[in-house]
Amino acid sequence: MFAMNKCYNLAMEKGFEIIDHTADVGIRAYGADISQAFVNAARALFSLITELDDVEEVLYRDVELTAPDQESLLVEWLNELIYLFDAENIIFNRFDITHLDNTQLKARSYGEKVDSSKHKLKTGVKAATYHMLKIDKGNGCKVQVLFDI
Amino acid sequence: MPMSWQGILNKIDDYRWEIPQSYKAGMLVPGLIFASESMLNHIWEEQVFQQVANVAFLPGIVDRSLAMPDIHWGYGFPIGGVAATRVKDGVISPGGVGFDINCGVRLLRTNLSLEEVRPKIEQLVAELFVNIPSGLGSTGKIRVSGKELDEVMIKGSPWIVEKGYGEAEDIVVTEESGCMKGANPDKISSTARKRGIPQLGTLGSGNHFLEVEVVDEIYDRDAATAMGISSSGQVLILIHTGSRGFGHQVCSDYVALLGEAVKRYGINLPDRQLACAPIKSPEGQDYLQAMSCAANYAWTNRQCIAHWVRESFVKVFGKSRRELGLEQIYDVCHNIAKLEEYTVDGKKQPLCVHRKGATRAFPAGHPDIPEIYRNIGQPVLIPGDMGRCSYVALGTEIAMRESFGSTCHGAGRMQSRSAAKRSLRGADVAKALADKGITVKTGSMSSLAEEASQAYKDVNEVVDVTDKVGISHKVARAIPIGVIKG
């Protein structure tokens, strides 16, 4: 029980944790509110791709999304970031969500283009999936997403 | 401790296990898993059985929700899942194809022997590594324009062959002749296009790889001869990759779109990743046309890579392609949905067969397989994991009767990536491979640890089950001597 609490506290401090899945990788992200949990989910995503500490804030991209519900919005948000990494080679480490409700998200994400001399790329992420997708707003916010790797 | 499958599965025989329709309310048909008892003991997650059961919810599903012996926990569909739905009133599901649309395998042969290749293997692997862009974030050496990308989507690999990347014979020995008909670039988002343009002609990362391998066992000499495999010691090249970010984006786009269609059509699903739409609906047709674009992109991608493999061999061995006998044996896809005809309830009917980590396995005499293989059956290419071995097999009549012309697609994971990384270091994996006489070049050591043999089921056992069940028939086995990993 103690070990579990310790893990949980560590995850809370970091804002996210990685969960095991046979073929793919899941993440659980925490936040005092839903925006913070969405931010931590994005940080968890880029922690799979590279070392977050190696990323500097050189440029930003603005994202505006609409989706039928908040779960879909979470998947769309992460898929948009995967798209920006894949198509523009950008890795992000800071996210500023300026608006988030059940169907709309507005955010500015800061990062830089991949530089192979500086960034060690780890895992390729194909997409965020709807499998095991969860948003829990009781007692602080918690979101869970499974990525296809 | 009871195994996860006990109390769920009904044993039909040593290799057939049923998930009864009563397992979960909402299942329209039972499930069926092809596996040995010892393999079932390795399926530690009950989610696998849940996923086979969840697929049985898909409207219009016929017969059974099937799982091949390499089954493992996926998202929505299990990996190794096969489901056929009626075209007239059934659905199509992008999740039943997967993000890597037309991920598949291409096998080339040479007339070189192990003795000829072994002294040059380091040089050969280094040359292949330089010539074939691989790894996360890699971009292709060829850069297509937006208009050319449309041609790739519509025409598939024959388009790039026309540009000088390969031979007309390659097209003949490619599933669907490298081109799914009905592809429509109007159904592709601009985001998918942007991901697709830079990545054409790249191997990618994850479980994708390129392997130089040596035939070590021949089980069916006549069939092997028909495929140009003459003796053990012969060198082959296996390419495993798919539609890259282009296909991933097509799948993401359509899972979101069809998620809405599910509500419109009042479909009851236990997992949102199973999002689907009636095949005959506008949404279903749109996905089918978009999926065909991604499938054609993947065939073009493997065609480019095969071309650079040939160039690399020609350079390293100083002989022409013809002198080296660098011919294509076959190319199969293992993530796809296809409209095919099967006899169900005594009636021949058109079905949409979803193969999510499963290989088509058509028997001898089937009109859809090339004439040179018409007498033996369709070649089935089954890659194992990096350090083990891969198989060449043939499709069978039993597959037509029992598994909608499908068989397994590989070894199947049994350990998570992070668990593999916790227990192994990439450098140790590289050394273990070197000790086995396998030269490896990789862009990422951690990706090497994730893909270590220990993380996978034994492909020998997987293929043995398909052979004993009869859904494919073993022809030959090859072991790797050189590997390129993204």
Describe the overall structure:
- The complex is a heterodimer of chains A (149) and B (486).
- Chain A is of the alpha+beta class and 149 residues long.
- Chain A has a single domain, classed as 3-Layer(bab) Sandwich (Archease, Possible Chaperone, Chain: A, domain 1), CATH 3.55.10.10.
- Chain A is 32% helix and 36% strand.
- Chain A is built from three helices and eight strands; from the N terminus they run H-E-E-H-E-H-E-E-E-E-E.
- Chain A has helices spanning 2-14, 34-49, 70-88, and strands spanning 16-20, 25-31, 59-66, 90-100, 104-113, 127-128, 134-136, 141-148.
- In chain A, a hairpin with a 4-residue loop joins strand 7 and strand 8 (141-148).
- Chain A is globular, with a radius of gyration of 15 Å.
- Chain B is α+β, with helices and mostly antiparallel strands and 486 residues long.
- Chain B has a single domain (10-414, 456-485), classed as Alpha-Beta Complex (tRNA-splicing ligase RtcB).
- Chain B is built from 17 helices and 19 strands.
- Chain B has helices at 37-42, 47-55, 114-117, 121-131, 146-155, 157-162, 168-172, 190-199, 221-226, 244-264, 282-317, 321-324, 397-402, 417-423, 426-435, 445-450, 459-469; strands spanning 10-13, 16-19, 31-34, 65-75, 77-86, 91-92, 104-113, 209-218, 234-241, 277-278, 327-333, 335-344, 347-356, 359-360, 379-382, 390-395, 406-407, 439-442, 472-485.
- In chain B, strands 7, 8, 9, 11, 15, 16, 18 and 19 form an eight-stranded mixed beta sheet that branches. A seven-stranded mixed beta sheet of chain B has the order 1-2-3-4-5-13-12, with helices on both faces.
- The radius of gyration of chain B is 21 Å and the shape is globular.
- Chain B starts with 9 loop residues before the first strand and ends with a strand.
- The mean pLDDT of chain B is 94.
- The interface between A and B is large, with 37 and 47 residues.
